[in-house]
Hints:
The protein has helices at 2-15, 31-56, 117-135, 139-146, 309-349, and strands at residues 58-66, 73-82, 89-95, 100-101, 106-111, 167-177, 181-187, 189-193, 196-200, 213-221, 234-236, 243-257, 262-276, 288-295, 298-306. By secondary structure, the protein is of the alpha+beta class. Helix 2 (31-56) runs antiparallel to helix 5 (309-349).
Amino acid sequence: MRRLTKKKALTLVRELDAFPKVPESYVESSASGGTVSLIAFTCMAVLAVLEFFVYRHTWMKYEYEVDKDYTSKMRINVDITVAMRCQFIGADVLDLAETMVASDGLKYEPVNFELSPGQRLWHMTLQHIQERLKVEHALQDLLFKSAIKGPPAAPPERDDGSASLTACRIHGYLFVNKVAGNFHITVGKSIPHPRGHAHLAALISHDTYNFSHRIDHLSFGEAIPGIISPLDGTEKVSPESNHMFQYFLTIVPTKLNTYQVSAETHQYSVTEQDRVINHAAGSHGVSGIFMKYDISSLMVKVTEQHMPLWQFLVRLCGIVGGIFTTTGMLHGLVGFVVDLVCCRFQMGAYKPLKEAPHNEPVNGETPVGTESHSQ
């Protein structure tokens, strides 16, 4: 009983076969058809491989929304070298609400301002990347894809030895409120007081001022290796001792979701200016490095996307079916034109013989059905 049911099921499946079947004896092979088939299969294979590379490719999708998180703290990651001794300078943050942020997370390390050959090569490479980022904006997507979890990359270490350590490397991090503020490095250590804050600079001679600096890294939010910020690799050397450097930053909160990392960070754009402080010439101000930042109310969501598998299969079927059908139509059209041209030439080669008149004798014979009468 089970065998009979199975046979009926197979018979029903065979009856449902709607694809046309042509016996092999009805198929005529030709050299032109084989050539076209070979070309078609080659095109199918090449396009299928190229489509597979497109399937493996990913792209970044950008979405914008209002940033509703205004109560959390924002992290500032700093690695700046100033050409002054550490005891002469101080760094801190003063936000829009006149709140002074504690700089306990910053470290002051005496170093030499001149770089070693390895560090100079690393710094020149960073500057070259910054130049290319200004021209090729699509490189930013590549940096997002290369971002990974872990500690940020640091420049090669050097051994200053007994060299004169006349510079100071300020590195570390700060947590600030998500409001506009001013991160600055100026002469003297900061001293808080009820009306704000000040820097103790009265005992420091103006001749020792030198705010030439190098920014190895400056970012906001979670530090992500692979992400290069706009100020990374910046180097400013001033011939004047009394100089003010100003950077105006616009920070945009960013949520990054890739196949390598998922993090909340911040992007920023920057404009800069610098001038020599000369009170006699009317150029007033305080010598130092000032980074005034403002936070955008919009947030950017950057997501790495990939082509779905079903879409890849549909495109692959479209390539195979399209090439097979198109080459078949072209082969038939070319064959029809060739046959038409060849038949016209052959019609002139095989013309029928002209028939003789019905009543004229052929080879001296008397036509059948005629009588000869003699007189």
